[in-house]
Specification:
Blueprint (H helix, E strand, L loop, with lengths): L3 H11 L4 E7 L4 E6 H18 L7 E5 L5 H12 L2 E4 L9 E4 L1 H8 L6 E4 L17 E3 H4 L20 H5 L9 E4 L10 H8 L3 E6 L3 H10 L4 E3 L1
Parallel strand pairs: 1-9, 3-4, 3-5, 5-6, 6-7, 8-9, 8-10
Antiparallel strand pairs: 1-2
């Protein structure tokens, strides 16, 4: 069985410096690019945080309540590394053991921080902390993630949310080694193939929020995009 950890390791051996996730926010002018090595380091830090700080174990549930952002692919990768089940905002039947959210979900999840581990990100381009702090019981990703190692300290495990990577490698969104532009959140069920296919097919992902069609065309040209979704 091919796993996330297998594919990430293969990619790092083959071309560790290639861009893997590039994120644009047209409203703020942000452009953040993660090479495959940088992505792997963030995944490892997030996975260590989930295990060492929150005591999550294989088959526990991580609920991802993030907008379209480069941290979405990071936390999906972290969940697959640990062997967690992934749930998403709006999953009414989900009973999470931990939640990762952005500023928009902070108030709602802070009210539940006594019953579920909550880590929140300010979604700062450099991954920095909330400037005004977070409510009691909430963990600020921008404070706690930096002390985590760049290599996952545990053994990668297969969990109930590990994708079918063989199917992803034969998907229809992207050609081998291609570059996919999307305005869809990859950290949600409809958007998941836009992350799995680039990883399985040696490609890369460009995420864009807040852009009109002219700006999308400009980004597609600048980033040498080979396919768009949706």
């Amino acid at each position: 069985m091919t796993t996330f950890a297998d594919l990430l390791a293969q990619g790092l051996r083959r071309d560790p410096g290639r861009p893997f996730v590039t994120f644009y926010d047209a409203a703020t002018g942000e452009r953040t690019e993660l090479s495959l090595t940088t992505y792997a380091n963030w995944v490892a830090k997030a996975a260590n945080l989930l295990v060492e700080e929150f005591d999550l174990e294989q088959d526990d549930v991580l609920l991802v309540d993030l907008p379209c952002h480069w941290l979405g692919p990071v936390f999906l990768g972290a969940a697959w590394t640990v062997g967690l089940e992934v749930a998403y905002a709006g999953d009414d039947g989900a009973t999470p053991d931990a939640v990762v959210c952005g500023p928009q979900g902070l108030a709602a999840w802070a009210d539940r921080a006594d019953e579920v581990a909550v880590v929140a990100s300010a979604l700062h381009p450099l991954g920095l902390r909330f400037p005004d702090g977070v409510p009691p019981g909430v963990h600020d990703l921008g404070v706690e993630v930096w002390s985590q190692p760049d290599t996952f300290l545990g053994l990668p495990a297969v969990g109930p949310s590990e994708p079918d990577w063989e199917a992803a490698a034969s998907g229809s969104l992207l050609t081998e080694g291609g570059r996919l532009l999307s305005t869809v959140n990859p950290a949600s069920p409809p958007g998941l193939p836009i992350l799995t296919e680039p990883l399985a097919r040696g490609g890369s992902l460009v995420l864009v929020v807040g852009a009109d069609e002219a700006r999308l065309e400009s980004v597609a040209t600048d980033e040498r995009v080979t396919a768009r979704h949706p």
